[in-house]
């Protein structure tokens, strides 16, 4: 019995000595925690705390997106504009911002690989990414597991509804708020009935059309609300779309048409529509606020509107400052997606300054409390609810004219 007690005591001492050696050996900690399936959260928190104390190393922020898509490039340029402004005005608590940009080409596996690669680097404290719904949902849990703060500049905050996370934030209004704006816009103009053409399931255009369908009120006679609906598949069949719209023209009294989906599908549908007698008001999902659409021949002569979160002509001083800085570096006018990228990095930097820390958990706590007023989006301020969703939303309506988008007064 005496020998057993001695063995147990000796084992306890050895265990404690090994634990102390492990905790005070960064190289060993790094090797162990970088093994597959082991969270890098403790290592990241320690690295951030050390960097905060040192106060000279750059704040490294990962950026994951599809850098061949024009809208995504515009968003990246907005993020870079914010980084330039932050660095020119003293950095984050005296430290410069360094961006690590990874191209996921809008592919699910690439998004996972990019997020994992950034999570494996303990010096990266946050990721701006998950710019599309399917990318966001797959990397949010990965970032949470690895103690990495994630903020999306463009996925609708409905994607965060069931995330059950402390480190994931969304700087974009919910899809329901966009649907409410569209519904109220049509109601004010006494446009009661809408026909819907939506893409197949599990993409933003489909969810957008569903949301509008839910908020548009129908009457028993079927003369208000969504009075017709068709789902189309890619590649889009022009003849089938024409047949459906011709059938609606002959049998249904609709005054507006809601179109969800990507740019090429939207342009095809609009081109088909000009061959019909009906001349409805067209409502497009907000993802169609693209320069390629504003400049396309398919929209000429059609009444087209879409919801947005950015007004380039706002009298707000920060908007004027943002446009001037953006044009100085990139020689063109910023878009809504530039504005979203810019605001996302700026609010993240403000939370770090308020927390006087880059430790992800401490920055996340600061994000929960922030009321950021220097944003360039249409909202008066940026703040987040307990789920990390955007709280103070303001959505405006726009229409394309002469190659650009203008705000409906």
DSSP E strands, number: 12
- The fraction of residues assigned to DSSP E strands is 15-25%
Q: Specify the number of helices.
A: 14
**Could you spell the SSE succession in H and E letters?**
HHHEHEHEHEEHEHEHEHEHEHHHEE
Query: Which residues sit in consecutive blocks of at least 5 with pLDDT less than 50?
Result: 27-35
Rg, nearest Å: 25 Å
Explain the layout of strands and helices.
Elements: H1 2-23, H2 26-33, H3 41-54, E1 59-65, H4 70-88, E2 97-103, H5 108-119, E3 124-128, H6 133-145, E4 149-152, E5 168-170, H7 175-188, E6 193-199, H8 204-215, E7 225-232, H9 238-251, E8 256-259, H10 263-273, E9 281-284, H11 291-294, E10 303-308, H12 317-330, H13 336-355, H14 360-369, E11 396-401, E12 404-407
Parallel strand pairs: 1-2, 1-3, 3-4, 4-5, 6-7, 6-8, 8-9, 9-10
Antiparallel strand pairs: 10-11, 11-12
Helix pairs in contact: 4-12, 4-13, 5-6, 7-8, 9-10, 13-14
């Amino acid at each position: 019995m005496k020998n057993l007690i001695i063995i147990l005591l000796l084992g306890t001492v050895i265990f404690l000595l090994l634990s102390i050696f492990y905790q005070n050996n960064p190289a060993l900690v790094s090797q162990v925690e970088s093994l597959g399936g082991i969270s890098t959260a403790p290592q990241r928190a320690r690295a951030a705390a050390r960097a905060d104390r040192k106060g000279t190393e750059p704040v490294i922020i990962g950026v994951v997106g599809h850098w061949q898509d024009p809208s995504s490039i515009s968003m990246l340029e907005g993020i870079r504009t914010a980084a330039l402004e932050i660095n020119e005005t003293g950095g984050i608590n005296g430290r410069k911002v360094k961006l690590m940009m990874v191209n996921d080409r809008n592919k699910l596996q690439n998004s996972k690989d990019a997020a994992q690669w950034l999570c494996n680097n303990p010096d990266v404290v946050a990721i701006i990414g998950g710019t599309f719904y399917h990318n966001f949902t797959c990397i949010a849990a990965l970032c949470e597991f690895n103690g990495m703060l994630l903020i999306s500049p463009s996925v609708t905050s409905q994607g965060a509804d069931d995330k059950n996370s402390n480190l994931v934030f969304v700087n974009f209004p919910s899809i329901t708020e966009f649907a409410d704006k569209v519904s109220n816009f049509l109601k004010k103009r006494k446009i009661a009935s809408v026909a819907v053409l939506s893409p197949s399931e599990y993409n933003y255009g489909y969810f957008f059309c569903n949301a509008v369908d839910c908020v548009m009120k129908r009457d028993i006679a079927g003369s208000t609300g969504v009075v017709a609906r068709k789902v189309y598949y890619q590649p889009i069949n022009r003849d089938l779309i024409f047949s459906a719209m011709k059938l609606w023209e002959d049998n249904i009294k609709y005054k507006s048409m809601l179109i969800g989906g990507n740019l090429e599908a939207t342009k095809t549908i609009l081109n088909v529509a000009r061959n019909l007698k009906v001349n409805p008001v067209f409502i497009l999902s907000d993802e169609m606020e693209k320069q390629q659409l504003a400049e396309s021949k398919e929209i000429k002569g059609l009444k087209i509107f879409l919801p947005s979160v950015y007004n380039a002509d706002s009298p707000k001083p920060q908007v004027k400052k943002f446009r001037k800085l953006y044009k100085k570096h990139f020689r063109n006018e910023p878009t809504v997606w530039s504005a979203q990228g810019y605001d996302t990095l700026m609010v993240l930097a403000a939370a770090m300054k308020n927390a006087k820390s880059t430790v992800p958990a401490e920055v996340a706590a600061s994000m929960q409390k922030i009321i950021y007023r220097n944003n360039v989006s249409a909202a008066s301020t940026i703040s987040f609810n307990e789920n990390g969703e955007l709280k103070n939303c303001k959505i405006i309506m726009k229409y394309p004219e002469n190659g650009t988008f203008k705000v409906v007064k």
